[in-house]
């Protein structure tokens, strides 16, 4: 293969006065911001949905199940387009205009990616709650807790510990799925990757660097949640050697 390697191109100045390595660092920052924001939103919404789907109220179960079925069966990129192009048109004119002209792209990216991931986390939370014995719920009620207090103080803390390995995988997927947000204007890592290739044609160098950065982000989240898992493990519920993958 007659390919000319040139690692020094990262130091070359671009049309906007920055250097190519600064484009990469900027994209890395936006990728991290979108991923962490979406993960926080997904954990909140997913936990609420997981609880709703394990209650004895059929209306709440129906709402939770409908959300999961809908959001898990529409591709992420289509959902982002819906939030970016369609939803503003369905809102009152003044609000829709504000969303299209004033709302930062990062907000749309976080909402789209977060609500998509929430459907997957809801499945994990539901499974964790259902794996617990009914005796824990009954013990909480016997102590005078309300139904919702048993979730908050008894069932959810245990459920999170059980499904933490699965949540680790979802957290890693958020960083990888964030690459799709370039489609709605986010200048994240994948966007900068494509832009640099178009301007320099140094495909191999930039591909290796961006790949390494994505691996580093996902691996860092894996190790962080693995540490949390080891600190919060409940003997007898999670195997001693099990970790996040």
UniProtKB/TrEMBL annotation:
ABC transmembrane type-1 domain segment(s): 28-225
PROSITE patterns recorded: ABC_TM1
GO molecular function: transmembrane transporter activity
Keywords: Cell membrane, Membrane, Transmembrane, Transmembrane helix, Transport
InterPro entries: AA_ABC_transptr_permease_3TM, ArtM/GltK/GlnP/TcyL/YhdX-like, MetI-like, MetI-like_sf
Coiled coil region boundaries: none
Example GO biological process: amino acid transport
Top-rank taxon: Bacteria
Intracellular or extracellular location(s): Cell inner membrane; Cell membrane
Listed transmembrane segments: 20-49, 70-91, 103-122, 203-221
Gene Ontology CC: ATP-binding cassette (ABC) transporter complex
CDD domains xrefs: TM_PBP2
Similarity remark: Belongs to the binding-protein-dependent transport system permease family. HisMQ subfamily.
Protein name per Swiss-Prot or TrEMBL: Amino acid ABC transporter permease
């Amino acid at each position: 293969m007659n390919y000319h390697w040139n690692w020094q191109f990262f130091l070359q100045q671009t049309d906007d006065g920055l250097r190519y390595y600064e484009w990469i660092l900027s994209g890395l920052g936006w990728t991290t911001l979108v991923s962490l924001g979406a993960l926080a939103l997904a954990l909140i919404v997913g936990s609420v949905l997981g609880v709703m789907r394990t209650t004895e109220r059929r209306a709440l179960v129906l709402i939770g199940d409908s959300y999961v079925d809908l959001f898990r069966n529409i591709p992420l990129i289509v959902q982002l387009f819906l939030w970016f192009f369609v939803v503003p048109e369905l809102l009152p004119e003044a609000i829709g205009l504000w969303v299209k002209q004033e709302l930062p792209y990062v907000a749309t990216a976080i909402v789209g990616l977060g609500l998509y991931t929430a459907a997957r986390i809801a499945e994990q939370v539901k499974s964790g709650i259902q794996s617990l014995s009914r005796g824990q719920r009954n013990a909480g009620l016997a102590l005078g807790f309300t139904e919702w207090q048993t979730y908050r103080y008894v069932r959810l803390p245990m459920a999170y510990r059980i499904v933490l390995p699965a949540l680790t995988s979802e957290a890693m997927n958020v960083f990888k799925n964030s690459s799709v947000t370039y489609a709605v204007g986010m200048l994240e890592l994948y966007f900068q990757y494509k832009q640099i290739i178009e301007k320099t044609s140094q495909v191999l160098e930039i591909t290796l660097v961006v790949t390494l950065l994505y691996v580093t982000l996902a691996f860092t989240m894996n190790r962080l949640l693995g540490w949390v898992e080891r600190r919060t493990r409940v003997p007898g519920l999670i195997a001693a050697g099990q970790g996040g993958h």
